[in-house]
Amino acid sequence: MNDVPATISNEQQLPVIDIRALVAQTGDAQSVAAQINQACREVGFFYIVGHGVDELLQERLEILSQQFFAQDVATKMQMTMSKGGRAWRGYFPVGDELTSGQPDVKEGIYFGAELDESHPLVVARTPMHGANLFPAKMPELRDVVLDYIAALTALGHTLMCGIALSLGLEARYFADRYTADPLVLFRLFNYPAQASETQWGVGEHTDYGLLTILKQDDAGGLEVKTKAGWIAAPPIENSFVCNIGDMLDRMTGGLYKSTPHRVRNVSGRSRLSFPFFFDPNFNAVVRPIALPARDDKEERWDHASVHDFSGTYGEYLLSKVAKVFPMLRESVLPK
To answer: Which residues share a beta bridge with 188?
Structure first.
């Protein structure tokens, strides 16, 4: 990871795609799919508008998140991730999460699908499945988070239909094979104002799964690595930033790229970010789609190849998350 930030271009912009036809399942959905195809092939990132997610729900989520992170650390640590066990849920303070072995300058809460003790995956002690942790003094946060997860899960299904169409596949290609019961993970992140432009809120990385749907506040700071270099991805009102992850890169043989990105908060104030990850079922075996393939090992930021992996998505994910919070590895990995 470079200590000195590369020059950021504000001239090149990520594509903005209006997905109303995809949400409504009208005849214009193929036009939306064509735009998704171009965005995924060229940069792996795009904004979406016309998504239909309730703006009041989004606003409430942001307000409550601000209130939570404004509390003292001791109060926030009452729902520390060590209490979440195998479910991998709860709060972590600034510096506890690592990217490429380096501490991030951010704090956050990990959430997922709310599953009680009777759920088959919980009974089977499947890592990263279970109940969420919520702050006792902010009971309203529970309903807002769970409503938001439900809304974004529905949006994830819609977008994966669009991605399937963009590849010339039937709309239910991913749902029938991987995401009828998706692994959904949701984060609330707070990036404190950074004193130095050489600090990273989160360093260069790619996401692990299929699709990330990101809500960000108006502070800015997200940067995306394109063929032309690093570009800013500033907030656009009532939009989400979408990017594809390593598993979609793997499925498409590198046709759709999981693009490196990073965050540097130099706004002079805290920055809120809400990434939602829509991924294959934990036990799904991820297989390549019959498309023209090319290995990207030498091109990737980490000089690895996601195409070398075989096994279930859960096995792949655990190999990654164990590096993010090394101190929690034993509580999550199967014994």
So the answer is: 109
Residue type, 323: K
User: What are the chain's domains?
Assistant: 16-328 (2.60.120.330)
The tens place of each residue's pLDDT in the chain, 335 residues long, gives: 444 455 566 657 999 999 999 999 988 999 999 999 999 999 999 999 999 999 999 999 999 999 999 999 999 999 999 999 899 999 999 988 888 788 899 999 999 999 999 999 999 999 999 999 999 999 999 999 999 999 999 999 999 999 999 999 999 999 999 999 999 999 999 999 876 777 789 999 999 999 999 999 999 999 999 988 999 999 999 999 999 999 999 899 889 989 999 999 989 999 999 999 999 999 999 999 987 655 555 565 556 665 566 689 998 888 877 677 666 556 666 65
Rg (CA), the chain: 19
**Contact, 79 vs 135, CB < 8 A?**
yes
Q: Model pTM greater than 0.85?
A: yes
